[in-house]
Amino acid sequence: MRYRSCDNSTATNAPMNCLWRTDLEHYDLRMVPLYLCVTLAVVAVASGAPPKAGDVTKVALNSGTFMPIVGLGTSKVTDEREMEQTLDAALEAGYRHIDTATVYRNEHLIGKVLKRWLSEGKLKREDLFITTKLPLYAMRAADVPYFLNESLTKLQLDYVDMYLIHMPFAVKREAYSDGRFDDNGTDPTTDHLAIWKAMVAEKEAGRAKALGVSNFNETQIERIIKNSPVPPANLQVELHLYHQQKPLVAFCKKNNIAVTAYAPIGSPNAKWVVLSGRNLPDLFSLPEVKAIAQKHNKTTAEVLLRHTVQRGIIVIPKSSNPKRISQNIDIFDFALDDNDVATLDALDKGIDGKLFNMKGFAGAENHPEYPWPALRNTPQKA
Ligand SMILES: NC(=O)c1ccc[n+]([C@@H]2O[C@H](COP(=O)([O-])OP(=O)(O)OC[C@H]3O[C@@H](n4cnc5c(N)ncnc54)[C@H](OP(=O)(O)O)[C@@H]3O)[C@@H](O)[C@H]2O)c1
Ligand SMILES: *[C@@H]1O[C@H](CO)[C@@H](O)[C@H](O)[C@H]1NC(C)=O
Ligand SMILES: *[C@@H]1O[C@H](CO)[C@@H](O)[C@H](O)[C@H]1NC(C)=O
Ligand SMILES: *[C@@H]1O[C@H](CO)[C@@H](O)[C@H](O)[C@H]1NC(C)=O
Ligand SMILES: *[C@@H]1O[C@H](CO)[C@@H](O)[C@H](O)[C@H]1NC(C)=O
């Protein structure tokens, strides 16, 4: 086990605080009950209040803030009633981290529910961790303050906890209208460094507490690190059992960038894209996953999420079903042992297990910043 340096200690006992912020790849499983107990203790010390049900482990960010390791994904929830029920269920189940994006077209619905919880005094702003993203049709430096402002207005917030560049590639502003992208194509003039500089200005102005990127590859992240005084605090990428992203996660650990897994249970209701020419079975149907779930008396979804969380990676499962919402955050009362982990690690299919290639944005693969060169010439769209 390894301790991180603790610069902005909030707890009195530095090693304890560091344990809370520990690199979970070096988790000693025999120590899990102790970790849980210490985590709760440190949360209590840090916040000055006893831990509440649903307090979950947080991941330390290089920005000095902390990100809850389980968050709620919200893409495709665009109905007001559904969003209300979803967020009420999630906040009641203990979620404090919500992932949205301008392109999900639901920030205004999320804002309405948050406003109610905040004004009723059931939550304080500092209890929440809200992530949103710069859309791929606004990939110019001058777009950043405008689009973040729009997001804040819709969310009814003064700041977001994390602002991400959604995609490394861009489509022209004119190619987007009313939730649809036409085939007018990509904007090849994308300048990541100029956009990042504008992002940094937003952080300095206090409108974003931390900054990050999504769907960027190692080369693209490295370039930002080398050219900006403010490194990304977070990388959000596709990551699940079939696509475990081991090299990219190692790169992020080395650079102190927290990783967030999107599609953490394999986006089961989206159809699998067969990049390898093989039809991959649904993650829920895998006998290895089922057996481990049975052994721990947990659901297959809980095992899939726990596997990723145990690597120190943040997960943002999407559900609009109250039962599944509470299931997906109920993953702190058990731990996978070394055998379970070895079995699950072995199911990684690397690039062949990748679900999203983003070719649904016409011409994405020909953009100079398309992040997955290996997928450039595969025919599938998703
Ligand atoms: N940055 C990016 O480019 C990007 C791309 C994709 C996704 N994301 C983010 O990541 C979030 C999650 O990804 P995702 O929505 O694609 O996939 P996911 O979270 O892996 O899977 C969501 C699907 O699984 C079902 N589900 C959830 N919990 C379940 C459980 N316990 N048992 C069985 N089924 C369950 C949900 O249906 P029900 O709602 O019916 O439960 C939903 O259809 C998104 O919502 C979004 O916030 C980001
Ligand atoms: C943000 O929006 C508000 C009102 O919605 C406006 O007054 C302000 O000038 C905007 N700021 C930027 C940077 O666009
Ligand atoms: C393409 O862009 C132009 C404006 O730049 C617009 O008039 C046209 O409808 C767009 N859509 C398609 C499919 O060409
Ligand atoms: C298994 O889990 C379910 C649901 O959490 C619970 O009701 C049941 O008592 C558990 N069974 C055992 C044997 O622990
Ligand atoms: C990242 O994407 C860029 C643009 O396509 C490419 O030049 C670079 O080789 C990619 N890096 C990795 C590690 O895939």
From TrEMBL:
It holds the Pfam family Aldo_ket_red. Belongs to the aldo/keto reductase family. InterPro entries: AKR, Aldo/ket_reductase_CS, NAD(P)_OxRdtase_dom_sf, NADP_OxRdtase_dom. Residues 71-348 form the NADP-dependent oxidoreductase domain. Keywords: NADP, Oxidoreductase. This is 1,5-anhydro-D-fructose reductase-like isoform X1. The lineage of its organism: Eukaryota, Metazoa, Ecdysozoa, Arthropoda, Hexapoda. One of its GO terms (molecular function) is oxidoreductase activity.
